[in-house]
């Protein structure tokens, strides 16, 4: 521990900054004080100027009133940093502050801030008191703070800054409280500066910056409704900060602003979207990685600037941070997911193909669509209903006129081993008091959100005027259960789709608006899209929920609904199910799944679906998909083909369409398009044993199910920005076409050998782009050498495909070795992993043998589990003999690709098997 004190000044601001970012080992920096306004404002390079007036309409006088510096032109500076990004400065002209540039109004050196007055070692880490003498210009500045630092584990540091005197709202989710570890055992070390207060967390092994708020031009601000802390980044390579729409890599050589306020918003760039995940990962200059999670549920924004640095700016709660040291990206995600909670294991059928659209409008149409897709043999597990199945859009009803016979249709689906999922919106109609039990019981049990003056808040959604359940209320889950149970007896659904849960509201705030108090008109509103108010398209911040105000809980509405829905489904189904939610918050994965909302039927949305899904792997919600062929607007045949090919590799594959667009289910297109789509979905079904095993691995440690290339090739900088290709597990590389009229692709192949899954040719890459011929009927799929994947012949449902033999495809590496595994259980029982009701088989190939070893035999399918074909790719020489379990077995040899192929091994997988080639 070192205690460094300094008095900063203008002339040396740069030196200090450089000292900090270079992480030099000087303990104490004592500088001369100099309060000349011009020099304290002379912050160069300008990338160290931190925004002092983030709200709309800044001006020199507003800036001066805040005690900050105003420069609307670049002062002559010796900065060598490319100045392109200042052309996009729009945050100071009131147009849009989601895109930002260099701030005009920024903090001077020496801005009044906190001093450390006590610093004590504790049995968990440190506790410190931070005192500020003068109030900042933000109302209700809190002058006495306590900082707690917990050495939570070797790889996880937790620190929190709270008001020393008064308890403040804290995010009501359960976080683990492991025993503290000794500082000598951690991967990180902690330093601080006393005055102004700043905290630095370093990676012990390299000195890399994991967190560093010791920035003389970025003071800590801690007012009741304005809390801000900045940190320097180790490098400009960032991932995370969701839910957002855009490329995977956030390039911190540019200015960017991210906003976090759950909103019913078609995914577009630079806007707050459905969910809030204040978590980022930073790949360090040395190519190790760490992650930072800001546990805060208030409206928030994050500024990224090319220092590189990042500023968290929130309007409530406390500053509560978790730092994860990795050092691999994969490890960071594991550490984060283990902290917020391991996701729910999906049922196997959830991995099948799902079909939905808004406005089938009647049962005949629905039947026609189901039939035409089954008639052409589309593998198809789940049919969904959007809101048009309801009677007047009322929850827990179905339209007995237009959907007369819906219960019988569901019975038929069940007979065909298919499933059925219905949509629910949280808004409950209040139009039928005394005649609509969900409303009447809700009133009686007090479960609806109330407005500031204590009346039930009324908004407006599909059914017209609606009230909103408060899922934090102790009566809410049993209230929700009652209707869910009763309705399940009427319509035996298999899963629930919880939409509109930001929550969405067609009138802002409530049918009578909101108050003008500081929860509805806070002194600062992050740069969220809309009209600049928090209540835009949602409820009033001043609305009251059981646990706290809507102001505090808004971003968690979807999470709380998912928690209640998860519990309800467990009670009704007593099996694994799906509850797919639009709005999400950290820890959501424990309770449910996600789809990326109302994406448009465009090529751009096709592309951005990939980074969207990869982000949710990092956010601990691996079961995620985008609406295949696009939700809004008319799709077209080529787009829908390409989207079906890519969607076949989403963890969650659902073709879903809005009400007024043309049909886009596979059966709607021409014969050749149908055939291509069918092949793509069959390809998916055949690979589900492998995908399901990835979900098992996710259960063990939170590992992603699909991955960016960088996760598997972190040493290769070229992979960091790649978000048009991705991996299943770390062994199957997917390289889709994402552009119209394109039949050739330049795809990146990280160094190593890659087998084309279709023609089995091996491409040996030195880490560069290759040209792939990709006609309309093709998606590129490559098996990374050294891996064995289990697969099955496809069938029309997963219930049927699961009965087929397991086949193996082994891609040998240069040492003639490969490994893989298969997880198999009954597909939907609860906690089969905890109860060991599963079978796990490890496959190993090594120097002329390939064998399977049963690690656990906790599940024995009735139909046995047989080994079908075996393909061994990349064999060094043609064998003369092949033995399977010590008996000679016929095999085929492909000379062009050096492959052994056994058509049907036909041995049980529940016992060890061995293949030897001589
Ligand atoms: C700050 O709060 C702590 C805890 O209540 C108290 O011990 C300390 O005296 C306070 N310091 C000041 C300067 O108010
Ligand atoms: C829960 O509902 C009951 C009526 O069933 C009501 O008496 C009670 O006050 C409610 N609980 C709360 C905390 O509002
Ligand atoms: C709360 O709702 C009642 C009934 O609609 C309304 O009269 C009152 O003005 C509302 N209060 C606020 C603060 O919106
Ligand atoms: C194959 O033979 C070896 C020794 O000859 C024996 O140890 C092994 O158990 C046999 N394996 C099977 C699967 O029969
Ligand atoms: C597999 O072997 C069993 C006997 O062990 C036999 O009954 C069955 O017909 C064989 N299946 C195939 C597809 O060859
Ligand atoms: C330049 C080139 O290789 N073009 C190929 C693109 O893809 C089409 C159809 O798949 C091929 O016919 C072209 O030769």
TrEMBL record:
UniProt domain P-type: residue ranges: 39-109
Pfam family, one: Gal_mutarotas_2
Localization of this protein: Endomembrane system
Keyword set includes Cytoplasm: no
Gene: 20217681
Protein name according to UniProt: P-type domain-containing protein
CC terms in the record's Gene Ontology section: endomembrane system
One GO term of the biological process aspect: carbohydrate metabolic process
Organism, scientific name: Helobdella robusta
Main location: membrane
């Amino acid at each position: 521990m070192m205690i460094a004190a300094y008095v900063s000044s203008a002339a040396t601001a740069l030196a200090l900054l450089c000292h900090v970012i270079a992480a030099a080992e000087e303990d104490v920096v004592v500088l001369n004080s100099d309060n000349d306004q011009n020099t304290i404002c002379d912050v160069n390079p300008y990338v160290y100027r931190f925004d002092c007036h983030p709200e709309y309409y800044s001006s020199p006088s507003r800036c001066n009133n805040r005690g900050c510096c105003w420069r609307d032109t670049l002062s002559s500076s010796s900065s060598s940093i490319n100045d392109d990004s200042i052309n996009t400065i729009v945050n100071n002209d009131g147009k849009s502050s989601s895109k930002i540039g260099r701030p005009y109004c920024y903090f001077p050196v020496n801005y009044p801030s906190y001093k450390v007055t006590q610093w004590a070692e504790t049995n968990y880490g440190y506790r410190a008191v931070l005192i500020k003498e003068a109030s900042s210009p933000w109302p209700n500045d809190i002058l006495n703070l306590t900082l707690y630092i917990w050495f939570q584990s070797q790889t996880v540091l937790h620190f929190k800054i709270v008001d020393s005197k008064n308890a403040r709202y804290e995010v009501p989710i359960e976080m683990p409280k492991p025993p503290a570890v000794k500082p000598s055992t951690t991967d990180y070390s902690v330093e601080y500066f006393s005055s102004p207060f700043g905290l630095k967390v370093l990676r012990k092994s390299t000195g890399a910056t994991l967190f560093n708020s010791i920035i003389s031009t970025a003071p800590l601000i801690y007012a009741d409704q304005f809390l801000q802390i900045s940190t320097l980044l180790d490098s400009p390579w960032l991932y995370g900060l969701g839910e957002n729409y855009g490329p995977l890599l956030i390039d911190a050589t540019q200015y960017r602003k991210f906003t976090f306020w759950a909103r019913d918003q078609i995914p577009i760039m630079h806007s707050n979207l459905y969910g809030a995940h204040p978590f980022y990962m930073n790949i360090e200059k040395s190519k190790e990685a760490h992650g930072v999670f800001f546990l805060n549920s208030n409206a928030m924004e994050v500024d990224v600037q090319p220092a590189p640095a990042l500023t968290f700016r929130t309007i409530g709660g406390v500053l509560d941070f978790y730092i994860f040291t990795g050092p691999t990206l994969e490890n960071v995600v594991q550490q984060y997911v283990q902290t917020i909670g391991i996701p729910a294991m999906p049922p196997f059928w959830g991995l099948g193909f799902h079909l939905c659209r808004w406005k089938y409008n009647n049962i005949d149409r629905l039947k026609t669509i189901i039939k035409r897709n089954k008639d052409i043999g589309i593998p198809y597990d789940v049919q969904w209903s959007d809101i048009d199945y309801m009677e007047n859009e009322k929850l827990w009803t179905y339209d007995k006129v237009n959907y007369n016979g819906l219960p019988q249709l569901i019975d038929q689906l069940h007979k065909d081993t298919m499933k059925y999922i219905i949509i629910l919106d949280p808004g409950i109609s209040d139009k039928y008091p005394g005649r609509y039990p969900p409303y009447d019981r809700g009133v009686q049990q007090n479960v609806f959100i109330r407005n500031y003056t204590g009346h039930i808040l009324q908004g407006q959604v599909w059914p017209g005027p609606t009230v909103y359940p408060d899922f934090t209320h102790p009566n809410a889950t049993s209230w929700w259960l009652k209707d869910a149970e009763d309705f399940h007896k009427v319509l035996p659904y298999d899963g629930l789709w919880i939409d509109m849960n930001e929550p969405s509201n067609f009138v802002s705030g409530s049918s009578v608006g909101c108050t003008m108090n500081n929860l509805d008109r806070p002194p600062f509103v992050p740069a969220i899209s809309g009209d600049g108010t928090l209540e835009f398209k949602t409820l009033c911040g001043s609305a009251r929920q059981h646990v706290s105000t809507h102001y505090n809980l808004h971003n968690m509405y979807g999470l709380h609904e998912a928690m209640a829905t998860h519990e309800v489904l467990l009670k009704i189904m007593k099996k694994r199910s799906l509850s797919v939610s639009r709005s999400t918050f950290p820890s959501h994965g424990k309770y449910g799944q996600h789809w990326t909302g109302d994406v448009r039927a465009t090529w751009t949305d096709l592309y951005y679906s990939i980074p969207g899904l990869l982000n949710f792997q990092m956010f601990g919600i691996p079961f995620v998909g985008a609406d295949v062929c696009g939700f809004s607007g008319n799709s077209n045949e080529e787009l829908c083909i390409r989207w079906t090919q890519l969607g076949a590799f989403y963890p969650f594959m659902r073709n879903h369409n809005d009400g007024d667009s043309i049909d886009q289910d596979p059966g709607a297109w021409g014969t050749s398009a149908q055939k291509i789509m069918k092949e793509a979905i069959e390809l998916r079904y055949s690979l589900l044993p492998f995908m399901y095993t990835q979900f098992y691995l996710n259960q063990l440690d939170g590992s992603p199910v699909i991955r960016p290339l960088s996760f598997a090739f972190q040493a290769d900088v070229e992979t960091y920005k790649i978000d048009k290709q991705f991996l299943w597990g770390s062994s199957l590389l997917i390289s889709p076409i994402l552009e119209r009229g394109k039949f050739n692709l330049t795809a990146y192949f990280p160094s190593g050998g890659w087998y084309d899954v279709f023609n089995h040719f091996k491409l040996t890459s030195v880490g560069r782009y290759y040209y792939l011929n990709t006609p309309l009927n093709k998606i590129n799929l490559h098996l990374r050498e050294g891996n064995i994947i289990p697969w099955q012949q496809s069938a029309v449902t997963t219930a049927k495909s699961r009965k087929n033999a397991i086949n193996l495809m082994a891609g040998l590496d240069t040492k003639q070795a490969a490994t893989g595994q298969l997880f198999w259980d009954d597909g939907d029982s609860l906690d089969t992993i905890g109860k060991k009701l599963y079978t796990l088989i490890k496959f190993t190939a090594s120097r002329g043998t390939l064998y399977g070893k049963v690690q656990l035999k906790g599940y024995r399918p009735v139909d046995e589990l047989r080994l079908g074909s075996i393909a061994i790719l990349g064999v060094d020489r043609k064998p003369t003999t092949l033995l399977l379990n010590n008996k000679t077995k016929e095999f085929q040899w492909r000379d062009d690709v050096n492959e052994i192929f056994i058509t049907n091994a036909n041995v049980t997988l529940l016992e060890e098997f061995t293949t030897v080639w001589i």
